[in-house]
Write a structure and sequence with these properties.
Elements lengths: L38 H4 L4 E2 L2 E2 H7 L4 H15 L7 H4 L2 H10 L3 H13 L1 H8 L6 H18 L8 E3 L2 E3 L6 H20 L4 H9 L10 E2 L7 E2 L37 E6 L5 H14 L5 E6 L13 H15 L2 H14 L9 H11 L5 H5 L11 H9 L6 E4 L2 E2 L2 H4 L1 H25 L8 H6 L4 E2 L4 H4 L20 H5 L3 H11 L14 E7 L4 H16 L3 E7 L11 H12 L2 H11 L2 H8 L14 H10 L3 H12 L9 E4 L3
Parallel strand pairs: 5-11, 7-8, 12-13
Antiparallel strand pairs: 1-2, 3-4, 6-8, 7-9, 9-10, 12-14
Helix pairs in contact: 11-13, 12-13, 23-25, 24-25, 24-27
GO molecular function, one term: unfolded protein binding
GO biological process, one term: protein N-linked glycosylation via asparagine
Pfam family, one: Thioredoxin_15
């Protein structure tokens, strides 16, 4: 049953007062003029809504100003809404801003809420506020800047969160709350790293690099046949060219029509297959409706050296297209191909060589069919390039579709869903580009395609075994928990974050010889270095350090079998060297330990001190080697199992926590 309790909603109501259309004859000399009683006169009233302000001001003379302000508030809130004069409405927004700015910070939000929810009641009171002239000039200057830079007209409303433009038509309060949580999480992470105040503001303004689980193919390849070009075709000559068009208000779900190749669709098809007609006709639909999308094709055709186009439909279509493109243009050649498919409607849009011949004879009667389609046709250029490019990309079975280089799923490639999938990606990309323009990382002087393809997730080949691995990052920020690397019993009960922090804090590194060089890349190699595979990984890492002048190398031990002094001889030597030796000597000694002959000699009974190199602190090394124990190796092995999810003896590499 409905609750009897009333629910109060914020806001205000509006009464529609129907005016009388009857004419009335009045003697204006007898009409009493209504005068607006000034607030100063009204404040002389002793009692307002039960408060005796005269008595209160006598008793509390030190609070006279506050009592007067409260009295004004009660008088205004008790009055009926009276119409304001036109001149009283001119500065209401400035007056509201002046009142908010003059209010203490802790009350400003409350006042803004009160004014916005009760504006009709507050309007008369606001009309009496004196506007700060300096603030008025500053607001007008800001309005000019916003209009020039972002196309925001005076009176328009925009919502920005840490510099991100939020489309209020697309976001609801719950999605905005989720965004605030993400921003708060980022700020908390920066705070935990010791970044505060103005430095945090600078970091938040940075445009973070795009690290996506999905990789994109570089579409700057000559094998792609583009049927249109937004930047050069006359069809789009009336469109604006500035990137700042992304910042202008637009209808929800629309894509700005900008004369730049920010949206690119590439279709890989075999014309001899039935699906090709649907995809070609869909591409034609997008083109003819002037969608701001550059469309390209990669035709996978017969790759034999000599092919008779009069017997192979795919080759015939390719040569006919090249002939029409040479006679007219690529765009017009594509329109003729669409007409060819349209004429085959009775055949369920399935073309044959005879359809190509008939069409050429009807539309281009002067063309010699054998010269165009025959074995030695001069219109056969780059026929095998499409198949070679397709093989190089590593894409799956045909058909394939790429939007700005990103492969679409098998379901999205279906002609039924492709149109919606492309349009949805265009809307998402427009939002990302809007942010890029706002942050200043995209401007009118940049090439659109180069900007898209220079992202760090653009690759020349899609290798699913390598690229489709989900990225994992270690949280190396320490909490209040402290533990020693050799205290295995305490380390055992720590969570993943604290275990990672303890390992990072105790890690020793091999660094470049020049101490002034900042190591921007931190590498951890994980292996059982008492096994040949682990020593090979160490040797390869040392070789990498020869040419990588901005890297530092750390070692994590992941023993295969039960840990004891006998089966950790090489690992203890590596650890003792890291703990006791200088950087230059450390490098040469690690190279010696990584050799198989050294490991074989040590396991056959030779003492490790016989392999010490000149310049080493031999006493410190031998003492550490003999007293190091196995607790550190147990701690490292537990870290590999619990945090890195590696089995004993399994190898791995951690680069900058990834």
């Amino acid at each position: 049953e409905p609750s009897s309790r009333k629910m109060y909603l914020s806001g205000y109501g509006v009464e529609l007062a129907i005016k009388s259309t009857e004419y009335k004859a009045l003697d204006d000399t007898q009409v009493k003029t209504v005068t607006n009683t000034s607030v100063e006169d009204e404040t002389e009233v002793n009692e307002v809504q039960g408060f005796l302000f005269g008595k209160l001001k006598e008793l509390y003379s030190d609070l006279r100003d506050n009592l007067t302000a409260f009295q004004k508030y009660l008088i205004e809130s008790n009055k009926e809404m009276m119409p304001l004069k036109i001149w009283e409405l001119q500065d209401l927004s400035f007056q509201a801003a002046s009142l908010i700015m003059s209010t203490p910070v802790y009350d400003a939000i409350k006042l803004m809420k009160d004014i916005s929810q009760n504006f009709p009641i507050k309007a008369r009171f606001l009309s009496r506020i004196a506007v700060n002239q300096h603030m008025r000039e500053e607001i007008k200057e800001n309005q000019r800047d916003l209009q020039d830079e972002f196309g925001i007209e005076p009176g328009d409303a925009r919502l920005f969160i840490n510099g991100l433009l939020i489309d209020t038509n697309l976001y609801d309060p719950f999605s905005i709350l989720d965004m605030l949580k993400l921003e708060g999480k980022m700020m908390n992470g920066l705070h935990n790293l010791g970044i505060n105040g103005e430095d945090m503001s600078k970091f938040l303004k940075l445009n973070s690099p795009v690290w996506k689980d999905t990789y994109i193919l570089d579409i700057r390849h000559s094998s792609i046949m583009w049927i249109n070009d937004l930047e050069n075709d006359s069809l789009y000559v009336t469109w604006p060219t500035s990137c700042k068009e992304f910042l202008k208000p637009a209808f929800s779900g629309s894509v700005p029509s900008i004369r730049r190749n920010f949206h690119n669709l590439v279709l890989f098809i075999d014309p001899t297959q039935e699906y090709s007609s649907d995809l070609i006709r869909l591409a034609g639909l997008l083109y003819l409706h002037e969608i701001p999308l550059r469309i390209g094709f990669v035709f996978i055709l017969n790759t034999d050296d000599e092919v008779d186009g009069t017997n192979d439909f795919g080759v015939a279509l390719w040569r006919a297209f090249n002939y029409i493109a040479e006679e007219l243009s690529v765009s017009e050649a594509f329109i003729y191909i669409l007409e060819m498919y349209k004429e085959a409607k009775d055949q369920k849009y399935i073309l044959t060589v005879e359809n190509v011949k008939t069409f050429l004879q009807n539309e281009f009667p002067h063309a010699n069919i054998w010269d165009v389609l025959g074995t030695h046709s001069k219109y056969d250029k780059e026929r095998t390039a499409g198949a070679s490019f397709y093989k190089m990309t590593g894409l799956g079975p045909l058909p394939q579709a790429l939007y700005n280089g990103e492969p679409l799923t098998h379901e999205e490639t279906n002609s039924i869903y492709l149109r919606m999938a492309v349009l949805q990606r265009m809307m998402d990309t427009s939002a990302d580009l809007q942010n890029e323009v706002f942050m200043g990382t995209l401007n009118d002087h940049m090439d659109a395609v180069d900007f898209l393809m220079d992202k760090n997730n653009a690759v020349p080949r899609i290798n699913s075994l390598i690229l489709h691995t989900k990225q994992q990052y270690l949280n190396l920020i320490s909490t209040s928990v402290t533990a020693d690397i050799e205290d295995f019993s305490t380390f055992f009960f720590l969570d993943s974050q604290d275990k990672s922090a303890v390992i990072a804090k105790s890690m020793c590194y091999l660094t470049p010889d020049d101490d002034s060089i900042i190591s921007v890349v931190t590498l951890w190699i994980i292996a059982d270095f008492d096994k040949p595979s682990g020593r090979k990984l160490l040797f390869n890492a040392l070789e990498h350090m020869k040419t990588s002048f901005h890297s530092r190398l750390g070692v994590i031990y992941n023993p295969t079998s039960k840990i004891n002094e006998e089966n950790t001889a090489i690992s203890r030597g590596i650890l003792a060297a890291f703990l006791t030796q200088e950087n230059g000597i450390l490098r040469s000694f690690l190279r010696k330990l990584a050799k198989e002959e050294t490991a074989t000699a040590i396991y056959t009974g030779d003492k490790i001190k016989t392999f010490l190199t000149e310049g080493m602190d031999k006493n410190a090394f031998v003492k550490k080697y003999n007293t190091i124990g196995v607790n550190i190796f147990q701690t490292h092995q537990l870290f590999c199992q619990d945090v890195l999810k590696l089995h004993p003896g399994e190898m791995g590499i951690v680069s900058n926590g990834k």
